[in-house]
Amino acid sequence: MSTINAVIKNGDNYEQTFVFERNGEMSGKKKIRSKLIQLFPASVGSLMCIPFGIMLGWPSPTYPKLLSASSPLPITIDQSAMIAGFLMIGNIVSTPVSTWSFFGTKYGIIFGLLGMFIGWIIMWYASDIYFLLSSRIIIGISYGYSVGQLKTYLKDLCSTDLSSFLIKTINFYVFFGVILAYILGYFLSFTNFSVAGMAVTVVILIACCFLPHSPKEYLRFGRIKEAETLIKCLQPDVNVEDEIQKLHVEMLIKEKGLSFFQSTSFKNNMQCIIIFLFLHFYVTIGSLPDFILNKEDRECLAELNYDVEWLKDYFQDNYLLPDVHDEKLLIYISVAGQKK
Predict the structure, then answer these.
(1) How far apart are CA 203 and CA 105, in angstroms?
(2) What domains are there in the chain, each with its CATH number?
(3) Is residue 1 predicted with pLDDT exceeding 50?
(4) What are 224-249's pLDDT values in tens digits?
């Protein structure tokens, strides 16, 4: 907020007026427009989580078909657990390298979608369990890498408050994919299910090809004009030159940062990583829905009840409880609640 001091002569008297100006503050319409411009490409990029969600929900409607006497690809109940696990093994393997970006986060997302498309092709051609294992682990690896790229893309493209909100919604897209898998599995055969997975992945892949790079990546590629134009669209209230300088500084700091493997060489960092991995394992294993792995003697209503409960807990745990409760307590409540 600044003032302009003006002195006006009125006859023999002088009147002093103050005119208040707002610097760097947008009107309500401009704020909404800016948020929408940020939200649209971010939402399109987040769609890449859906093919993974479909594969995550794939076992539930598919296992009864594969375990039946008329199975197009016979498997045993013991093999079904291994097939389910390979998806998360791939996810874990690729997570440490998910921050590596050779051609920008946009192409990192596209690369992950290409990997998921290849995984669905392998599933389509599957003739034995090894095809199923290969398909699941490839999709897991592709998602583990691309979701890291997506988070970086959201942080670079959107304002801090909006990117924080959008990162929380990533699991919602995965959940939507799981629900879509339940629907597709009911109506489609094993082979046609894979075709549907390919079709969904291709549509999202084509949409992501039209995404813009983030301003930081335009600078990295030496495309300064594009970076300035995008900054004006995303943040019309900021000084473009100052923002360019700020991004240059952030890029220099990032170049001097430590990689995942370098950080593990420091004792304090290693302790934090071990704690993080333990908590991740604890929450993941402790909250596994057992009927996804074994659907025998389960009614469809059980799946619906679980989905509704999961959706309720998702919004509650992501948007309501974190502001009023301790994080450690939330972890215990979450695991205990999902095993009830």
Answers:
(1) 19
(2) 28-257 (1.20.1250.20)
(3) no
(4) 888 778 777 777 777 777 777 777 67
